[in-house]
Design goal:
Arc Repressor Mutant, subunit A, 6-stranded antiparallel β-sheet, SH3 type barrels, alpha+beta, 13 strands
Length: 338
């Protein structure tokens, strides 16, 4: 027969175990429930965003496409769409799920958060470009509207993310963008890169390795089923059509050269002025933040003042201030004739 002390000790152990399991908010059961709830909410929001993406690019959203995008079974995808329908965020159209007005507003809030966070990562951190999308995928589910408003304000309410995608306004306004891809550009034409697709990451990394970034101008020399041949700044090379389909471009007027007027700031001679087109995505973290703080943003006029005795760095006049930039830094800044 157990002694009173042994029974009391056993009872204490049971109490401790029950507390650890069922204590409100801090117990294991409570934590598991929160994780499961969060996972369900994340999947619902990702499904909603997928329906929005399909609508935006003119693609039919299907049960299979939702399941494939979220990497879940079709049964789970059907459950998620049913839940979204119960919340009046989607309804079943003739060809598949369609966003309601409330659903579109919710999807745009997610898109706004995602793109603002990518802008933050590009401008204020040292996170590699290939990791921006994945990081933003996590944060878009965690930030409140107040958090997003503060982030937008701290960044100066940017209109574009670092990939060239428009950032929805706080009121849900989203400008339309051109949908011509590098793979569909007419041979003989000159185009300017306005967007680089960041999914999947392997494709985005390939685009960066090819030396393409926002503002790049290239001449489309030829196009076959196996390659798109382009030329720029005295260089000619070929890109895989799959990669080229992930580059959105705008056609430039006939006669515009891929070698001009866009150049790097390092190519501007002392005494000449140029206008900023953009900053290369290769420039990240504190370096990028410094340039932005100096006012090196699209449309800013910069004058090359004079070179140092050794030729590097070079003094530039930006918004009334004289600053020195090394050649490596100046090469990150893309400019056109002022």
């Amino acid at each position: 027969m157990a002694s009173p002390i042994t029974a009391l000790a056993a009872f204490a152990v049971v109490v401790v175990v029950c507390a650890a399991l069922f204590w409100p908010r801090l117990g294991v059961v409570s934590r598991v429930r929160r994780i499961l709830h969060l996972s369900e909410r994340v999947l619902l929001e990702d499904a909603l965003k997928h329906v929005h993406t399909c609508e935006r690019i003119g693609r039919t959203c299907t049960l299979d496409s939702v399941a494939g995008r979220l990497e879940v079974s079709t049964a789970r995808a059907a459950h998620l769409l049913t839940r979204l329908g119960e919340r009046d965020l989607v309804h079943n159209g003739a060809d598949g799920p369609v966003l309601t007005e409330a659903g579109r507003e919710s999807a745009l809030r997610l898109v706004r958060t995602h793109r603002l966070w990518e802008r933050y990562l590009a401008d204020r951190t040292n996170v590699p470009a290939g990791e921006w999308h994945e990081e933003a995928e996590r944060m878009e589910h965690r930030m409140s509207e107040e958090d997003v408003a503060r982030l937008a304000s701290s960044l100066g309410h940017p209109a574009w993310d670092p990939h060239g995608d428009p950032i929805p306004s706080a009121r849900g306004e989203l400008p339309s963008i051109e949908r011509l891809t590098l793979a569909g550009a007419v041979p003989g034409s000159t185009v300017e890169v306005v967007h680089l697709e960041d999914e999947p990451r392997e494709i985005f990394d390939a685009l960066l390795d090819e030396g393409l970034d926002l503002g790049s101008r290239v001449e489309v020399r030829a196009r076959t089923e196996s390659a798109v041949e382009i030329a720029s700044m005295g260089r000619t090379w070929s890109i895989d059509p799959v990669v080229a389909r992930n580059v959105t471009v705008r056609a430039l007027p006939e006669g515009v050269s891929a070698d001009a007027p866009v150049r790097s700031l390092a190519d501007i001679a002392p005494g000449d002025a140029a206008r900023v087109v953009g900053i290369s995505p290769k420039c990240q973290g504190s370096q990028r933040r410094r340039l932005l703080d100096l006012g090196v943003v699209r449309g800013t006029s910069i004058e090359a003042a004079f070179r140092s005795a050794g030729g590097d760095p070079i003094a530039y006049r930006i918004r009334g201030a004289l600053i020195a930039l090394r050649r490596e830094q100046a090469e990150w800044i893309r400019v056109e004739a002022a």
